[in-house]
Amino acid sequence: MLLTIGSTMIMGYVASYSFLKSHGSPTNDASKIQRIFANAGWVGKEKGEIKTIRLRRKNKITDGMEYVYQLPLGFDRKKVDSTILEDGINVRQKSGVKLKDFKQVKLNKPIIKQIKKILNKKAARKEIELDFDGMLKIKVYNAPMPNEVKFDADRLKPNTWKILVGKSRQSFVYHDFEDRPHIIVAGATGFGKSQFLKFLITSLIEQQPDNVTFTLIDLKGGAAFQRFKDLKQVTRYAKNPEEAKEALKQAQEEMNGRYEDIVERQGFEDVKEAGIKKRHFVIIDEAADISSDATCMDIVTDIARRGRGAGDRLVYATQYPTNETLPSQVRQNIGARICFILETTAASKATLDEKGAEDLPEIPGRAIYKRVKQTVVQTIYITNKEVEQRIKVHIRPKGVPHEQSCTTPTADRKHPLITEKA
Ligand SMILES: Nc1ncnc2c1ncn2[C@@H]1O[C@H](COP(=O)(O)OP(=O)(O)OP(=O)(O)O)[C@@H](O)[C@H]1O
Question: Which parts of this chain are annotated as the region Disordered (predicted)?
């Protein structure tokens, strides 16, 4: 009996070894990378000779391996296409079988069935990350990033303006609005922009309930921000281009007052230096709908330029990033981006000034966060129920008006947006 079991186990090992041989070992990524570079023509020339990348070292990292390459002289690293590289690394990656899987085979259960199951195990797709700091660093991860990172209140940072953007492979990533006051949010429809904005507003209210105020411009017909409109922190709420123009004019007027007082009269560099705790966030979704209006775009540019000093923060979200919807004056004055998957390289360049967003996997919440360098993150998922539970204590009691209220135009009103003092 024991002899039969033993020989069956040995047969299993032999079968799996020949399987791995025929399907390619998962450990030869370095040579695959070398071959992909050569085949794709990602080479340079030294003294008239074609030269390819040279592996300098390998480092074990969490969930994978980092390969560090020296590039030949004259190598244009912008040529390196991460999709081609990732696809190449995953070619023949049919088996995710490891030797330790066979150690889990139970002798008291049908052995052949268990071995078949192990051999049929589908390999997790490997993912890569590229970085360059004089050397080309290619990180190859054995498993994909998680598709969902749930909201966890312990990750909030009360009394700060640091907002959790998401989780990268290495750590949780925060955006500090004191450091970079404005942010562009871009991404194709259905991949997490609204979810991110909802999370952003909820986090700001949780972290700074007495210091944050908002102008919310919701040009998606009220779908994105309507659950926030009655909060005491929301001083203006607009949901069509005319209301948006009026709300922006009011926000600019207020900003002018603060700027004149803090920067011009008192001589401070900005609100932070002046020790002022209040911040005002102007959040626009979908910004493409006002991008052809010169007045609106002048105000947006002005807020992006002088908002740091006056305590105004701009969040500019669009699903159609182009040179028209994201004009260079706006881009130059906004120092951070969160970019979900985009359809084209041109859209990626309009948002990030480089390609990359078109190559993101089609996973809702997967995004590139960019300040100077790009970091791939999975943004935080929060349900509408959770948002509502967290913000409900801030809803103005019925009959108590906004400090400044923007209401939908009605026939008997001269101005579409009215200002009411509390
Ligand atoms: N961070 C996330 N983690 C997991 N799933 C997410 C995440 N963000 C969004 N999703 C899923 O994707 C769906 C669409 O997200 P969302 O409404 O934010 O997209 P959008 O880009 O704003 O689309 P649209 O422009 O059409 O409004 C959500 O209902 C949710 O199921």
Answer: 398-422
Identify each DSSP E strand in 27-155 by its residue range.
44-46, 49-51, 54-61, 64-70, 127-132, 136-141, 149-150
Is a pLDDT exceeding 70 seen at residue 5? no
Minimum mean pLDDT range among 12-21, 127-136, 334-343: 12-21
Please tell me if the CB atom of residue 366 comes closer than 6 angstroms to any atom of ligand 1.
Answer: no
Distance 151 CA to ligand 1 centre (A): 14
| DSSP-derived secondary structure letter, 145 | P
Task: Tell whether the model's pLDDT for residue 371 goes beyond 70.
Answer: yes
- The pLDDT of residue 409 is above 50: no
- The whole-number pLDDT of residue 373 equals 87
238 forms beta bridges with 217
**Closest residue CA from atom 24 of ligand 1:** 189
- Alpha carbon distance 152, 161 (integer Å): 17
Ligand 1 site-directed mutation target among 147, 189, 191, most atoms within 8 Å of CB: 191
User: At residue 273, does pLDDT exceed 90?
Assistant: yes
**203 pocket-lining for ligand 1 (C-beta < 6 Å):** no
Residue 290 has pLDDT above 60, yes or no: yes
Atom of ligand 1 nearest to the CA of 196: 18
For residue 71, what are its two tokens?
A: 């590039």
User: 398: left (phi > 0), else alpha (psi -120 to 50), else beta?
Assistant: beta
Cα–Cα distance for residue pair 97/333, rounded to 1 Å: 50
User: Does the pLDDT value for residue 250 go beyond 60?
Assistant: yes
Helices (H), 108-225: 111-119, 193-207
Binding site feature residues for ATP: 187-194
Q: Which segments of 33-135 are extended strands (E)?
A: 44-46, 49-51, 54-61, 64-70, 127-132
ipTM of this complex prediction, to 2 decimal places: 0.96
Q: Whose CA is nearest to atom 16 of ligand 1?
A: 192
